[in-house]
Design goal:
CATH architecture: Sandwich
Keywords: Signal
Protein name: Anaerobic typically selenocysteine-containing protein
Helix content: 10-25%
Strand order of the largest sheet: 3-11-10-5-8-7
CATH topology: Immunoglobulin-like
Largest sheet: 6 strands, mixed
Order of helices and strands: HEEEEEEEEEEE
Radius of gyration: 19 Å
Low-confidence stretches: 7-23
Length: 150
């Protein structure tokens, strides 16, 4: 009976490897070998969450690190359509939690975190942040994804 154990172990290894690959993480190499870092600061003004910089510039189709620092006294939802979907995220750490919608992250009050992700193709789209306590007042910034310098 034990003589078939290696076969079973090999089969399990293959199945687990395929399941891990099916997680949807980027399967193509990034356009740039470097992993640039940018800081995103969240503050609160007149009860409204405000993100800085207003124009978040990142290299397209690249692995980037966003260092998030919140100075808001309430949790803040950070969103960008498709950019924060699970298949674009390489790693997150700190006071961040992935939103149930899949399009954003909740940053704890006065929280700090690191978000490593693969950016989308070149182009522009909105990104936003809103206090959990005041979701009607959404700050809207611009996410600008430029082709990486070779």
């Amino acid at each position: 009976m034990l003589r078939h154990a290696p076969l079973g172990l090999g089969l399990m290894t293959i199945l687990f490897a395929q399941a891990a690959a099916a997680q949807g993480k980027p399967d193509t190499p990034p356009k740039s070998a470097s992993m640039p870092s940018v800081e995103l600061k969240i503050t609160k003004q007149d009860g409204k969450a405000v993100c800085s910089p207003t124009e978040l510039r990142l290299a397209a189709n690249s692995n980037v690190t966003i260092n998030i620092i919140s100075q808001s006294d309430s949790p803040v939802m950070l969103t960008s359509l498709n950019q924060f979907k699970n298949d674009q995220i390489l790693h997150h750490d700190g006071d961040l939690a992935h939103a149930a919608s899949g399009d954003g992250y909740t940053v704890k009050q006065n929280g700090k975190g690191v978000l490593k992700l693969r950016t989308l193709a070149a182009g522009e789209q909105e990104y936003g942040c809103a206090s959990i306590n005041n979701q009607k007042e959404v700050f809207r910034g611009k996410l600008i994804l430029s082709p990486p310098s070779e």
